[in-house]
Each structure stands twice: as structure tokens, then as C-alpha cells.
Amino acid sequence: MAALKARYDHLLGKERPEIVEIVSWAAGNGDRSENGDYIYGRKRMREIDRELAYIARRMKILRVVDPANQPDRTRIFFGARVELADEDDERQTVTLVGDDEQDAGNGRIGWNSPMAKALRGASVGDLRVVRLPGGAKEWEVISIDYA
Predict the structure, then answer these.
(1) What's the pTM?
(2) Interior angle at CA 76, CA 100 and CA 130, nearest 5
(3) For 107-124, what is each residue's pLDDT tens digit?
(4) Could you give all domains of the chain from N- to C-terminal order, each with its CATH number?
(5) In angstroms, rounded to a whole number, what is the distance separating the alpha carbons of residues 62 and 48?
């Protein structure tokens, strides 16, 4: 939520006013049909406005959840850090986060990802099959932590 708010404030307070100034200056130069600054500026302003609208919609529906306040720590819910083992006993640790926060390279998987959907509600020792584009894979839940 904080990252979305910071991005929104940056776009609205810094980038958009700069583009508006460039477009105003370019519009005053005459023929707009062949004015690159004007054309690019208008295009960039539309992109910024679209992103601002998207961020505003996301912030309106988002809810900040503190995983430390999870009452049932024996099952996997939002915010859980989960250690998994596959059939070859290769271990992987993932944290279930909001879709806007996901970063698979750092073990942060989005709440609506196939793996997160398969893990929801599981307890230690449960086996879950995750259907991925490369095929199905079975994972065993080794540990659950809400830090």
C-alpha cells in the first residue's frame, strides 16, 4: 500500500505537472500535427492518467493485513512464510503476499498465483499438487511461519 501511495504521489505531484508544462509550451509553438514534443507529451500524459486511475482503483479496494495478527497459525493464509519440499526433497521457502507485491525471484508469490491457491488452508504435513504451465508438481508443507 505504501509503495502504491508513493508511486501515485510521484506521478501526480512530479511527473504529470512536468508533462503538462511541456505540452503547454509545445502547444504554444504553433502547428501541433508535426510537433513531436506536443504529440509525445500528450501520449505520456494519457499513460500517466491511466496509471493514476489504476493505482487509485487498487488503493480503494486494498486492505492492509498484518500477518502477525493471524489467529490460526497452523494453516496457510495470507502473509504466511511456508517451507515446502518437492518429490526430490528439494526445499523452497515462499511467502504469500498481495498480487501487487509479488516477486517470485525472492520467494514472494501473489495470493492469486497457482501455487498460492493450491497452498491456501494447508497444514504442516499436507501434500498439495500445483498445476503450472510446465506440468503438475507435488509439494509437501514442511513449516508455516507468520513473522
Answers:
(1) 0.69
(2) 75
(3) 999 999 999 999 999 999
(4) 2-61 (1.10.287.180), 67-145 (3.10.50.30)
(5) 21
